[in-house]
């Protein structure tokens, strides 16, 4: 259930920004200057007092002039050495495109974004919640995660910390577990907190020592705090039985089994009404091996997973809705912070926007901008862009989706209603109570029955009043079973396309749709065939499921079905001596040749130029799509789960139908001459 806006969390940053932040890192500055933390003699009362005070700050935090940082943040600033870019642009300096810098081993600077993250972690732990973090690249979270683990090992007796990842490469030999080891080694050599180790393995460290009792039994003594590194690949229950107080899930955006792993791990840190430990999951935008589906679902629906919910101040027009914690690219961007660690977000965003525009103009591959945006996102939706398994121009689609939804274009241009007869002719009757399915995936409150949406009424010949043959075609993806709708079931998806022609423009676009799942399949098919009659358009469809042909036979409507596609234009796809029936058999599996080729046809159609927008940017075919759920399917398309994308499946049928029509025109130029005179301009072959 959605939280109310007043219940959602925000991290409060001072309106004037942070000042005098070096006061939070005095110990680190002293160490940098002198090579040690305190001049007091080792083991003396004053030496012990100093290190006890530092330990207290690392546990409970530190306050300067009314501003408090958490214990982990204090430990990070003063006792964690990291690789850091040595030069940053101050807020009052002139921002330039490139500045010379170098990486050095040093202590972290104070960053406002780190302040927010460490407080979010502290807030979740105190409220018995867990935390999910989506972020841009190069924000130093492996360093922060490693320090949090090392600090808990150093400050809490008997604590158990688990650092998990789907693959061990994120843990060791160069991952987070290696950073933990470096921090602990620094504690042992440079602070008053040196601890012997009972276990010192690549994937398991345990502090303490053994002593022999008078009876000759060796027993463990000391802190006995532990850190484990575990992998969740093929083992969602990898953290079971560890009795951990902290579990970190590194690169959780790469977990294909994140929900299963998370739910299997929760009992380790929850006991009845009580939360005994904290789970933090992290995901970094971008990467061809990302598996965002589970992460995204959990991120936007935090309550069922006991995740701390925040006001979504990042996505467009989403404030007041809940999501998990997000770190945008323009926060703590090198070159755009002042000496006190305050981010110049406006200039950082301008700089990144200029880089994006350059990539859009110069890159030949439309996926180049998707990869860049996903790695350096402004919003969670950008971080979750599908790169792997999706060949569509996701960033262009996302930008268009935002405009269609935020400006309400889909409501102004699409008229929902139902089809019926008047004076023996099909007509569309607008109905304000009709509910098109505008979400993907379908949400519990959605009406699955759907509605017929008209974006452009059929063109009719001024003399005859009839719709010219060949002006339109229908593409359809059926659903398989005649049952009452159940959550997760597929929908029927139908789109009406207007062909390129020289008598009615704009064309080469979707002019009507019907997506839904009424209780009975005949109800869906009745609307499908009425759409076909309304637009005088043949129906192309996947013929390996549903009851389209059976319905057409029963009601004598076979003449409305498109003959089975010959695909004679492609030697790899055509079948010799084919006995033609109706529609097309797509076949199953992500490696299916027809599906793969159809996806390419659809991608190429989406990016076909259509002129110029009023702001001078290029208009593409995709900019003439006003169905929000279709845009979402294209944005989220995952070839490994192709069966979930009903609208995309219908569009693939449409692409083959378009090719079939074009080939017929080439083979017989006299066919459809009026409607398809300009079709050769598109260079389809």
Describe this structure in words.
The protein has 685 residues and is of the alpha+beta class. Helix 12 runs antiparallel to helix 17 (628-636). The protein is elongated and about 105 Å long.
In the predicted model, the low-confidence regions spanning at least 5 consecutive residues are: 1-6, 88-97, 483-488, 671-685
Number of strands: 27
Characterize the quaternary organization of these chains.
Answer: single chain
Cα shape: elongated
Mean pLDDT: 88
Beta-strand proportion: 15-25%
What is the topology, as strand order, of the major beta sheet?
Answer: 7-8-11-6-12-15-5-18
Largest sheet: 8 strands, mixed
Query: For the terminal residues, how far apart are their CA atoms?
Result: 51 Å
Radius of gyration: 31 Å
Give a nutshell description of this structure.
With 685 residues, the protein is of the alpha+beta class.
List the helices and strands and how they pair.
Layout (H helix, E strand, L loop, with lengths): L25 H9 L10 H16 L1 E3 L2 E3 L1 H9 L2 E4 L17 E4 L5 H15 L4 E5 L5 H15 L4 E6 L10 H15 L6 E5 L2 E4 L1 E4 L5 E4 L4 E6 L14 E5 L7 H12 E2 L2 E2 L2 E7 L7 H9 L9 E2 L10 E2 L1 E3 L17 H18 L4 H9 L4 H4 L10 H13 L2 H5 L1 E8 L2 E6 L20 E4 L17 E6 L14 E7 L10 E8 L4 H14 L4 E3 L6 H7 L38 H14 L2 E4 L5 E3 L7 H9 L9 H22 L18
List keywords for this structure.
685 residues, alpha+beta, eight-stranded mixed sheet, seven-stranded mixed sheet, 18 helices, elongated, disordered N terminus, disordered C terminus
């Amino acid at each position: 259930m959605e939280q109310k806006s007043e219940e959602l969390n925000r991290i409060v940053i001072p309106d004037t920004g942070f000042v005098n932040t070096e006061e939070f890192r005095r110990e680190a500055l002293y160490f940098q200057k002198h090579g040690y933390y305190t001049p007091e003699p080792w083991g003396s009362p004053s030496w012990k007092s100093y290190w006890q005070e530092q330990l207290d700050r690392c546990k409970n935090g530190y306050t300067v002039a009314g501003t408090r940082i958490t214990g982990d943040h204090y430990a990070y600033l003063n006792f964690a050495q990291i690789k850091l870019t040595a030069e940053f642009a101050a807020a009052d300096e002139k921002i330039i495109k490139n500045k010379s810098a170098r990486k050095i081993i040093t202590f972290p600077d104070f960053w406002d974004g780190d302040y927010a993250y460490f407080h979010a972690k502290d807030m979740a732990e105190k409220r018995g919640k867990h935390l999910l973090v989506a972020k841009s690249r190069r924000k130093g979270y492996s360093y922060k995660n490693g320090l949090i683990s090392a600090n808990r090992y150093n400050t809490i007796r008997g604590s158990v910390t688990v650092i998990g990842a789907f693959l061990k490469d994120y843990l060791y030999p160069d991952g987070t577990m290696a950073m933990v080891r470096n921090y602990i080694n620094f504690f042992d050599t440079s602070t008053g907190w040196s601890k012997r180790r009972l276990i010192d393995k690549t994937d398991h460290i345990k502090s303490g020592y053994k002593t022999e009792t008078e009876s000759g039994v060796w027993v463990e003594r000391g802190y006995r705090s532990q850190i484990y590194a575990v992998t969740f690949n093929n083992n969602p229950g990898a953290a079971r039985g560890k009795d951990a107080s902290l579990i970190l899930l590194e690169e959780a955006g790469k977990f294909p089994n994140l929900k299963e792993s998370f739910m299997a791990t929760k009992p380790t840190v929850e006991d009845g009404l009580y939360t005994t430990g904290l789970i933090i999951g992290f995901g970094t935008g971008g990467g061809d091996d990302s598996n965002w589906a589970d992460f995204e679902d959990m991120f936007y629906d935090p309550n069922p997973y006991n995740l701390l919910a925040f006001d979504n101040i990042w996505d467009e027009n989403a404030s007041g809705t809940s999501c998990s914690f997000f770190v945008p690219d323009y926060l703590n961007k090198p070159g755009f912070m002042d000496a006190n660690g305050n981010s110049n977000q406006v200039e950082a965003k301008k700089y990144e926007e200029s880089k994006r525009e350059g990539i859009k103009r110069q890159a030949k591959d439309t996926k180049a901008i998707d990869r860049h945006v996903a790695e350096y996102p402004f919003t969670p939706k950008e971080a979750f862009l599908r790169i792997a398994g999706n060949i569509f121009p996701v960033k262009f689609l996302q930008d268009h989706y935002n405009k269609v939804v935020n400006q309400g274009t889909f409501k102004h241009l699409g008229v929902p209603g139902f089809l019926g007869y008047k004076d023996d002719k099909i007509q569309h009757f607008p109905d304000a109570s009709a509910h098109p399915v505008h979400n993907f995936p379908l949400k519990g409150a959605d009406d699955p029955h759907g509605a017929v949406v008209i974006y452009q009424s059929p063109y009719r010949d001024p003399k005859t009043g009839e719709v010219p043959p060949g002006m339109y075609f229908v593409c359809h993806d059926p659903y398989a079973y005649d049952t009452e709708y159940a959550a997760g079931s597929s929908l029927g998806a139908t789109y009406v396309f207007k062909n390129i022609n020289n008598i009615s423009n704009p064309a080469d676009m979707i002019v009507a749709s019907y997506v839904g799942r009424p209780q009975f399949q005949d109800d869906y098919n009745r609307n499908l065939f009425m759409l076909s009659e309304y637009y005088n358009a043949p129906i192309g469809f996947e013929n390996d499921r549903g009851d389209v042909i059976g319905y057409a036979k029963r009601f004598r409507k076979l003449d409305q079905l498109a003959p089975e596609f010959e695909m004679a234009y492609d030697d790899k796809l055509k079948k010799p001596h084919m006995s033609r029936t109706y529609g097309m058999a797509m076949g199953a599996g992500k490696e299916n040749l027809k599906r793969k080729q159809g996806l390419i046809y659809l991608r190429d159609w989406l990016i076909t130029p259509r002129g110029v927008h009023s702001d001078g940017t290029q208009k593409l075919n995709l900019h003439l799509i006003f169905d929000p759920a279709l845009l979402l399917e294209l944005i989220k398309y995952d070839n490994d789960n192709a069966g979930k994308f009903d609208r995309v499946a219908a569009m693939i049928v449409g692409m083959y139908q378009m090719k079939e029509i074009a080939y017929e025109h080439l083979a017989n130029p006299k066919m459809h001459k009026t409607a398809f005179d300009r079709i050769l301009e598109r260079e389809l072959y």
